[in-house]
Amino acid sequence: MATKYIFVTGGVVSSIGKGICVASIGRILKSQGLSVTVVKLDPYLNVDPGTMSPYQHGEVFVTGDGGETDLDLGHYERFIDIELTRESNVTAGQAYLTLITQERRGDFLGGTIQTVPHLTNEIKSRLTGLAQKSNADVVVVEVGGTVGDIEGLPFLEAIRQMRNEVGRSNVFYIHLTLLPYISASEELKTKPTQHSVKELRSIGIQPDALICRSDTEVTRSIRDKLSLFCDVDPAAVFPMPTVGNVYEVPLIMEDYGVSRILSQTLGLDGSCELSDWSQLVAQMNAAEHEIPIAIVGKYVEYPDSYMSVREALRHAAASCGLKADVRWVHSEAVERDGPDAHLKGVSGIVVPGGFGPRGVEGMVDASRYARDRQVPYLGLCLGMQVMVIDWARDVAGLRCANSSELDPDSPHPVIDIMHGQKGVTDLGGTMRLGQYPCRPQANTHTARIYNQPQVMERHRHRYEVNNRYRESLESSGLVMSGLSPDGELVETAEVPGHPFMVGVQFHPEFQSRPNRPHPLFSALLGQARNTVREGSQLPFRRSKSWSF
Ligand code: GLN
Fold first, then answer.
1. Is the pLDDT assigned to residue 433 strictly greater than 70?
2. Separation of 213 CA from ligand 1 center, angstroms?
3. For residue 348, what is the enclosing H or E element?
4. pLDDT tens-digit profile of 490-533?
5. Nearest CA to ligand 1 atom 1
6. CA of 314 to the centre of ligand 1 (A)
7. Burial class (CB in 10 A: 0-12, 13-18, 19+), 164
8. pTM (whole model) above 0.85
9. Where are the beta strands (DSSP E) in 15-152?
10. Nearest CA to ligand 1 atom 7
11. Which residue ranges form the domains of the chain, and what is each CATH number?
């Protein structure tokens, strides 16, 4: 079978869940027995989101091969349960960089480089290249932004050209739009969608299907109207109401017949079997008790910055029969008001990753609070570093201990720049990125949790535990519970005599799946369930699997 391409564009407004819809289409196709890969096209000029602020871009999702990518790749990996590479995120910056590098080399000698055909060819070759490399039956392509954006035009032109290049029967276009609800007249409006489709057609793309996001029910008559005005088969106008649990989206799509329409048009084999997924969703939705878990971060006003952390907590909570009640706690607020004011009553604390000194003292305070009050704690990357800093200051007697990233003048830089990072001047794509091995050490929580001699985890950092201080940290009791295979790098640390206080130099959240919660998050949740906090409504229930 020739590779099939499904292109998903967006219209009307952004942030209406295109990534979730694309991930759900991927899930449906995989549940039909097809092999799937996904690409996110990002029309911005950055080469990757690695140097962008979380406020601009949300989380940077790290792939196993060390790509710093769009957070939508996290949705794809979680929904489809696949492992993607950096090639699944193509930006305008990458395409231009390739072309301009070739031009400087003289590859185009005598020629003029143009948006069409050179830029569009570069975009297309990245899509066909990935299709070939992955050997997938279907490549689902999400075009970032909304139709009408100036910078999106080369990408839309490229996907338009793909229809002729790979054959009309191998291409399917889906347009995702919003139907706004006007409360005065109590109706959903189709006009913005009609305009958006008109805009898309002016570029030469006629959508084969519409996905219509709305907060209220999309009636048959609205679907018929959209079908008529947008020239789309009425059966291919799919409503997508707002749901409480995003993992329901594949089920809703399939109820509206998405796999049938895709299969008919593209000639796909197999029938979609979502019963496992539906069981998973039922389990998530059946959880009655909410367990309060604080995420103490510096970007919490914009929770997209911690997308995978939140999802990993949800997965782990569901597997323990609980619902994670995520409390977003600003580390600067903890710094200002003290931890009691913000952390009282929580059953677990997660301190996630971050860069730069702002708000870090609040994270150190949160770590001290978790240690003193025996609150289960999971530190992710920076969250591990603050745990080590707190221990160094308070237990190992290293006054003013810090990370040299946060205080270059600290007398005790217990966290220091990694050896290979010294002298690095370019900031893009130069951190220690992607999958590296970690060996859990015998008789530690970490070893019991992983129950494997070596694990692979995804990294994104420049700083590490300073080996000059390992001796004093260890002799004061801190347990270096996971090391790199050569023993040179502290990958995980834990506080002894605490029900669960583990810090990891990596980001386990990227490997969590709804059907396979990450063991560290499951361990945190299992232990949090045992911890009855003041103000918590949770009935006391001792976990069998994670009681140490
Ligand atoms: N800023 C720290 C470092 O570079 C932590 C990075 C992170 O949390 N991802 O090591």
1. yes
2. 37
3. strand 348-351
4. 999 999 999 999 999 999 999 999 999 999 999 999 999 987 55
5. 355
6. 24
7. exposed
8. yes
9. 36-42, 61-62, 68-69, 89-91, 138-143
10. 353
11. 4-280 (3.40.50.300), 289-418+431-529 (3.40.50.880)
